[in-house]
Specification:
Elements: H1 12-41, H2 47-54, H3 58-64, H4 68-93, H5 96-120, H6 123-151, H7 160-166, H8 179-194
Helix pairs in contact: 1-2, 1-4, 1-5, 4-5, 4-6, 5-6, 5-8, 6-7
Length: 208
């Protein structure tokens, strides 16, 4: 037997367990994706309808999420995590102003889902969820704003809390056919306000 070709996980039982773990992860992701889409349409989407959309049985669903509230909590936490993780990637790959707009476009889409989540959870749980995600969301926005302040495309007197308050409309627009157009227009107005006036634009700050 040639060196370097030995598979240390040669035990069939271990291989089967690894396959089961991979299947479990794939099932969980399918369930979360299906739940996100279903809740964006209706806060009253049932666990049974979500399981069917995800292509999994009831047993699989309840092994991952013992009740509906656990599923909704997982959707929320997953979306917050994806939003937070996307901020540094956008800063690294796009001009600061484009990164800021793209991130808030993602937040707008998340806002449509969160509207449904808010209706689906108990008030105490909603508060817990808000507290859980608030600090990490502020950190992500700060990273985006700092990049804009460095290159002069964001005014220096605004912080993450200010901007999050300004985009609060994302959670208040009625879920009608006109929602996306209105949210896009309002988001443009907010981001225009975040930009410094043309006659007061600063030279980009050197990145240290």
């Amino acid at each position: 037997m040639r060196e370097g070709l030995v598979n240390k996980t040669t035990n069939p039982a271990e291989s089967r367990r690894g396959g089961l773990r991979n299947d479990a992860v794939a099932n969980r992701l399918r369930i979360l994706d299906a739940a996100r889409e279903a809740l964006a349409v209706s806060a009253n989407a049932s666990v049974q309808s979500i399981a069917k959309a995800a292509g999994v049985g009831q047993g699989t669903m309840y092994r991952h999420f013992p009740n509906r509230e656990a599923l909704i909590l997982a959707v929320h936490r997953n979306d917050v995590s994806e939003l937070v993780e996307s901020a540094p990637r956008l800063v690294a790959t796009l001009p600061a102003s484009a990164a800021l707009r793209e991130w808030f476009t993602q937040l707008a889409a998340y806002g449509r889902i969160k509207h449904g989540l808010g209706e689906a959870l108990y008030s105490a749980t909603r508060q817990t969820l808000s507290d859980e995600g608030y600090a990490s969301i502020l950190q992500a926005i700060d990273a985006l704003l700092d990049a804009g302040k460095r290159d002069g495309t964001v005014r220096t007197d605004i912080d993450a809390q200010d901007l999050l308050l300004l985009v609060g409309f994302l959670w208040r627009i009625d879920p009608t056919d006109d929602r996306e157009r209105r949210s896009t227009r309002l988001l443009t107005l907010v981001l225009d306000a975040v930009s410094p006036p043309a006659d007061r634009r600063q030279e980009p700050t050197a990145v240290r």
